[in-house]
């Protein structure tokens, strides 16, 4: 699992870590039961504070995506990929709805919106 941190991004580093681990779980890059690097090991490899990686892991654990077994490590929890995918699909639907609303406010027809969407898909 490769995590890429952008210091020029306006997003906090812990959110970047959280989002990339979520994505790896959804795509199957991280399988159920797979062990994640320790907080300290991940912090060292990313050259960030252990507090930052601890926050990312805490958020992932609160969402039920990972679980920590005291003295053994942190593992990908089961049955969560579908929940994440549903959440992401709702987000995309919301963005599409905003785009349609914006198009209609400037007078675009449904056919024009469909044509624009088809062009973007290419």
From TrEMBL:
Record's protein name: GntR family transcriptional regulator
* CDD domains in the record: WHTH_GntR
| Keywords assigned by UniProt, alphabetized | DNA-binding, Transcription, Transcription regulation
**What's one Pfam family here?**
GntR
Q: Reply yes or no: does the keyword DNA-binding apply.
A: yes
Residues forming the HTH gntR-type domain are 11-79
Q: What is the lineage of its organism?
A: Bacteria, Bacillati, Actinomycetota, Coriobacteriia, Coriobacteriales
Q: Which PROSITE patterns does the entry mention? A: HTH_GNTR
InterPro entries per record? Tscrpt_reg_HTH_GntR, WH-like_DNA-bd_sf, WH_DNA-bd_sf
Q: Which Gene3D superfamilies match?
A: Winged helix-like DNA-binding domain superfamily/Winged helix DNA-binding domain
Q: Which organism is it from?
A: Thermophilibacter gallinarum
């Amino acid at each position: 699992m490769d995590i890429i941190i952008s210091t020029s991004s306006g997003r906090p580093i812990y959110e970047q870590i959280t989002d990339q681990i979520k994505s790896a779980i959804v795509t199957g890059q991280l399988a159920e039961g797979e062990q994640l690097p320790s907080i300290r090991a991940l912090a060292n490899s990313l050259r960030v504070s252990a507090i930052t990686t601890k926050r990312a892991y805490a958020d992932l654990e609160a969402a039920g995506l990972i679980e920590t077994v005291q003295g053994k490590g942190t593992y990908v929890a089961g049955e969560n990929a579908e929940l994440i995918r549903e959440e992401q699909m709702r987000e995309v639907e919301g963005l599409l709805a905003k785009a349609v609303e914006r198009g209609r406010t400037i007078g675009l027809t449904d056919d024009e919106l469909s044509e624009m969407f088809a062009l973007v898909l290419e």
